[in-house]
Design brief:
11 helices, 2 domains, D-Maltodextrin-Binding Protein, domain 2, Bug_dom1, BUG, globular, Tripartite tricarboxylate transporter substrate binding protein, six-stranded mixed beta sheet
Length: about 325
């Protein structure tokens, strides 16, 4: 009887390679992260989501023990940045921070997206919400919703509003307002919040829908004026600004939420580590204060909440799109 040498025995050879692979794999998970992490912002620098990302950058880096790099990839109503992350390896080194513009509004408006918010992403955690505010250039001859509607009806097709892109929450908010108020206001899409705000301040457009985060500093220094807020109840950060709902349109509500997601398929250990780091960063008193100061209603929600929220919100927004008769892109 003869036996194969140990190093030539197929079974032992397979078992050894499997064991080595398991050890290396376990070591890789335990060592995560061992290089910088990229946080993609699908908007230009200076906008609301970019502001939130940069306020989280340092505390996240501290919690993870690695540098978190901000990578702005604006365009196509956040679809360019979202698609890039959807196609990235599911290894925890490429993340996306965005609002429901990416996760529910785009899918409700655009049937030919190159990403699927339910199939391609998994949640790391939600950071909070930031109601949209209808703001105006200070020279506009309207200071509230009633005056704005009267002005728009007096001059149909002459007023315009800016949004931070086709298929964004600000676009949908503007179209819903037009339908509910029965007014003809022209939509002007921009590649993000910041350029729309720049043109609003400069007088190139008279109106825009933007988030608390972007609007509050500009309102405080008098560069723009608030008309109304898009949440059902008044914002704690802007208690003197009435809601569109209380101004005669009780069904109006548009409140963006901000979340960090990763390509679906993360190793569970990596997802858990990222979620824990984000929760600690968001709940850090100094960071929380900075986010609230910027206008965010801060509330951490675990990554599992992402799937639940998308599944609930997406069909509702599809209904809104149909009511507003917004054409599919």
């Amino acid at each position: 009887m003869s036996f194969l040498p140990l190093f030539e025995n197929p079974f032992l050879k397979y078992a050894s390679s499997t064991l080595i692979g398991f050890i290396l794999s376990s070591h890789a998970f335990a060592a995560y992260p061992d290089k910088p992490i990229t946080l993609v912002v699908p908007y230009p620098a200076g906008g609301a989501t970019d502001t939130v990302a940069r306020k989280l950058q340092e505390p996240l880096s501290r919690q993870l023990g690695q540098t978190v790099l901000i990578d702005n990839k604006p365009g196509a109503g956040t679809a360019i940045g979202a698609t890039a992350v959807a196609k990235a390896p599911a290894d925890g080194y490429t993340l996306l921070i965005s609002s429901n513009t990416t996760f529910t509004v785009n899918p409700a408006l655009k049937p030919n997206l190159q990403y699927d918010s339910q199939k391609n992403f998994e949640g790391i955690g939600e950071v909070g919400t930031s109601p949209l505010v209808l703001i105006a250039n200070p020279k506009l001859a309207a200071n509230n919703v009633r005056e704005l509607v009267a002005l728009a009806k007096k001059e149909p097709g002459k007023l315009s509003y800016g949004s931070f892109g086709n298929g964004t929450t600000s676009h949908l908010a503007g179209e819903m307002f037009k339908v509910m108020a029965g007014v003809d206001i022209i939509h002007v899409p921009y590649k993000g919040s910041a350029p729309a705000m720049t043109d609003l301040i400069g007088g190139q457009i008279p109106l825009t829908f933007d988030t608390n985060v972007a609007a509050m500093p500009m309102i405080a220094n008098g560069k723009v004026k608030p008309i109304a807020i898009g949440s059902k109840t008044r914002s704690p950060q802007m208690p003197n600004v009435p809601t569109i709902a209380e101004s005669g349109y009780p069904d109006f509500e548009m409140v963006p939420w901000v979340a960090i997601v990763a390509p679906r398929g993360l190793p569970p250990e990596v997802q858990k580590k990222l979620s824990s780091a984000l929760e600690s960063a968001v709940n850090d008193p100094a960071t929380r204060a900075e986010l609230q100061k910027a206008g965010l209603d801060v509330k951490f929600e675990p990554g599992s909440n992402y799937d639940t929220r998308v599944a609930r919100e997406l069909p509702l927004l599809k209904t809104y799109v149909q009511k507003a008769n917004i054409p599919a892109e």
